[in-house]
TrEMBL record:
Protein name: ATP-dependent DNA helicase RecG
Catalytic activity as recorded in UniProt: Couples ATP hydrolysis with the unwinding of duplex DNA by translocating in the 3'-5' direction; ATP + H2O = ADP + phosphate + H(+)
Segments passing through the bilayer: none
Family matches, as InterPro entries: ATP-dep_DNA_helicase_RecG, DEAD/DEAH_box_helicase_dom, Helicase_ATP-bd, Helicase_C-like, NA-bd_OB-fold, P-loop_NTPase, RecG/Mfd, RecG_dom3_C
Keywords from the UniProt entry: ATP-binding, DNA damage, DNA recombination, DNA repair, DNA-binding, Helicase, Hydrolase, Isomerase, Nucleotide-binding
Primary enzyme class: isomerase
Organism: Isachenkonia alkalipeptolytica
Length: 685
């Protein structure tokens, strides 16, 4: 088992140079090589007649051969063996380079099966260096009917991969099967999985289509299994820790009654789930997912009320200063009247104020600290931290979250995300967290009317915006982030503002907001916008989170084709917040599928979960998860959508194992534990 973790250099013919090339394919160990699966297969089962073959076609043929001539190379030239192959429909020339010894095996009358690319040459059809077997020979059984095609880099050849993988598989064949198996036996039997050895042989070199299917099934199961059990094992470990049990049901009830609106059923349910966690002796690890505007802050505040009720402190982190400040305002407004003191700690505080804030946090006169990453600065010490909330967590590195958690005695952790992903998927990607979903919007929200428009219709779009502005409404104009260069990005935004102010929108006040501005500048612009002094706000994607101006009812997104659906949805969430009908225009260059389809989805759907589900169907989970696309999350064969059924079964199986043996300490789980520890160590996050 262990030796599969050996570096691929342990293979004959692989030295440091090749090792580097293999690293480009993410192949580091022998196991990585075995799990470098073909991206497709070449079907060599159909045997064509010479007359049926088209030029340039790759195909199998069965021919009787007659040697034509062998030529030894002079000097450095290649040796050449040429044959004529015939079937009952015609004949063709087969050339082998550098294999002079073949002339001894291939004698007149020999029947052979070949697979190669057929071209037209001066003497009619021909093929060079085809794969072949001699019929009636004992090699006949080794004819590879379904041939693997591998993902490659330019420095690793297909032939080389095939050779090395064959070699490895051969070595494995000589071992006892139980030693090589990595899944627990009961699971193999119950799920009728094929053995690991057979699966790997067939995924690389399938003999039959059916064998390939069986192999795939087993490997998909295996991949999901190790992902799920690793994440859930991690969670089980957290549950063994001692946290700070918090009561506070009564206080939270009281808080809900002070709100100017009725909490939605979804909010109540999620708050109930959180209170249930907080009561327990183990620290909470919960993710709350809710679409933009679903009211996550109300839920977060409920948890903070419980923390304060237990005479402990809570912290809430936001990814930007603007958002932190906004939370600070909201929390102060709703929680101060309940006797909970709120403090704001951000990077832009003067040193003196910062110091005073830190002092209050240490003494415990502040119950709830709101801030940016400054909250996790070295100098911040809490008197009694029991709860950490991160908002829009996808913007935080996992490590930052850990640092903050390290500041209390195993504090409860609540993560809030507005990147809605389907619940089943969330369970997996956040297998180390519990998941709550706010799946309902507060009453009375009007869906934003959304329209995609090509650039040539741009003037008309801006005319429509003017109509809204004339009614006293306000508008956002968003320009995309240009990945390569923040400066370019900035210039684009500045140009756009100038252009709009100078021409189309010259009768209105057009402001500019971008990421390079200081906090003070941003704050001033936002204040002017909120106060209505600025009517149109041109902005880079910094408006994505946290800006709340109900009078803004229009958004234009320039080059909308460059954004992901999830991001478009987030941006659009900035409007449609007041009583007026809102409009969103997606300006785009000429686009092809699937981009066109994505823009259509935005026109049709207003539900973040539905949008992300569709986005996933079109693009696959790739871009959506950012951070989590590494290490153990990097699936090679399993697909969250195609294989949902298998995934569900895996989930059940994993649950059963961990329920019986949460720490994986039983003798029968020893091997499993070893594999998981190894994975956790390799993919530390
Ligand atoms: P998000 O989930 O995007 O963070 P917020 O917490 O900012 O959403 O809430 C959006 C707006 O909806 C806020 O103005 C908030 O006061 C309001 N809100 C939250 N819950 C309700 C509710 N149950 N009924 C009416 N309005 C609500
Ligand atoms: Mg929010």
């Amino acid at each position: 088992m262990e030796d599969l973790q050996a570096n691929i250099r342990s293979l004959k013919g692989v030295g440091p140079k090749k090792e580097q090339r293999f690293l480009k394919l993410n192949i580091e160990t022998l196991e990585d090589l075995l799990y470098h699966f073909p991206r497709g297969y070449e079907d060599r089962r159909e045997i064509k007649k010479i007359r049926e073959v088209e030029e340039g076609e790759k195909t199998s043929l069965e021919l009787q051969v007659h040697p034509l001539k062998t030529r030894r190379a002079f000097g450095k030239g290649p040796s050449l063996l040429q044959l004529v192959g015939k079937d009952d429909t015609g004949s063709m020339v087969i050339t082998f380079f550098n294999q002079p010894y073949l002339s001894q095996r291939i004698t007149p009358g020999t029947k052979m099966r070949i697979y190669g690319e057929v071209k037209r040459g001066p003497r009619g059809l021909e093929t060079a260096n085809p794969d072949f077997i001699l019929l009636g020979d004992k090699g006949e059984n080794s004819w590879q009917e379904i041939f693997p095609i591998y993902p490659l880099t330019k420095d690793v050849s297909h032939k080389e991969l095939v050779k090395l993988i064959r070699m490895l598989l051969k070595g494995i064949k000589e071992r006892a099967e139980e030693n090589f198996e990595n899944l627990p036996n009961p699971l193999i039997e119950e799920n009728k999985l094929c053995r690991r050895r057979m699966a790997l042989e067939h995924i690389h070199f399938p003999q039959k289509a059916k064998g390939l299917k069986v192999a795939k099934y087993r490997l998909v199961y295996e991949e999901f299994f190790f992902l799920m059990i690793t994440l859930n094992f991690k969670k089980a470990k957290v549950l063994e820790q001692q946290g700070t049990p918090l009561q506070g049901g009564k206080e939270v009830q009281n808080y809900l009654e002070t709100l100017p609106f009725q909490a939605t059923e979804a909010q109540k349910t999620v708050i109930g789930e959180i209170l249930g966690d907080l009561k327990g002796s183990a620290p909470m690890s919960r993710l709350v997912q809710g679409d933009v505007g679903s009211g996550k802050t109300v839920v977060a505040m409920a948890a903070l009320v419980a923390a304060a009720a237990g005479n402990t402190q809570g912290a809430m982190m936001a990814p930007t200063e603007i958002l932190a400040k906004q939370h600070y305002k909201t929390l102060s407004h709703f929680l101060e009247p309940l006797g909970i003191s709120i403090g704001l700690l951000t990077g832009s505080l003067t040193p003196k104020k910062k110091k005073r804030m830190q002092e209050e946090i240490r003494r415990g006169t502040i119950d709830v600290v709101v801030g940016t990453h400054a909250v996790i600065g070295d100098k911040v010490e809490f008197r009694n931290l029991s709860l950490v909330i991160t908002d829009e967590q996808h913007r935080f590195g996992v490590r930052q979250r850990k640092t903050l958690s390290g500041k209390g005695k195993n504090p409860h952790v609540l993560v809030m995300s507005a990147t809605p992903i389907p619940r089943t998927l969330a369970y997996i990607l956040y297998g180390d967290l519990e998941v709550s979903v706010i799946d309902q919007m507060p009453k009375g929200r009007k869906p934003v009317k959304t329209q995609a428009a090509e650039m040539k219709g741009r003037d008309r779009v801006y005319e429509q915006i003017k109509e809204e502005l004339n009614k006293g409404r306000q508008a956002y104009v968003v320009c995309p982030l240009i990945e390569e260069s923040e400066t370019l990005d900035l210039n684009a935004a500045m140009d756009l503002q100038e252009q709009l102010q100078g021409n189309m929108l010259k009768d209105y006040k057009v402001g500019l907001l971008h990421g390079k501005m200081s906090y003070i500048e941003k704050e001033q612009i936002m204040k002017d916008f909120t106060d209505g002094k600025i009517q149109v706000l041109v902005s880079t994607t910094v408006v994505e989170v946290g800006v709340d101006v109900p009078n803004a009812t229009v958004m234009v997104i320039e080059n909308a084709e460059r954004f992901g659906l999830a991001q478009l949805h987030q941006l659009r969430g900035r409007i449609g917040r007041g009583q007026h009908q809102s409009y969103c225009y997606l300006l785009h260059q000429k686009v092809k599928e699937p981009t066109r389809r994505r823009l259509e989805i935005m026109e049709q759907s207003h539900d973040g979960f539905e949008i992300s589900q569709k986005d996933l169907e079109i693009r696959g989970p790739g871009e959506l998860f950012g951070l989590r696309q590494h290490g153990i999350y990097n699936l090679k064969i399993a697909n969250f959508f195609q294989h949902q059924k298998i995934l569900q079964k895996v989930q059940q199986d994993v649950k059963k194992i961990l329920l019986e043996d949460p720490g994986l300490e039983l003798e029968k789980n020893r091997k499993l534990r070893g594999i998981i520890d190894q994975k956790l160590q390799r993919y530390r996050d």
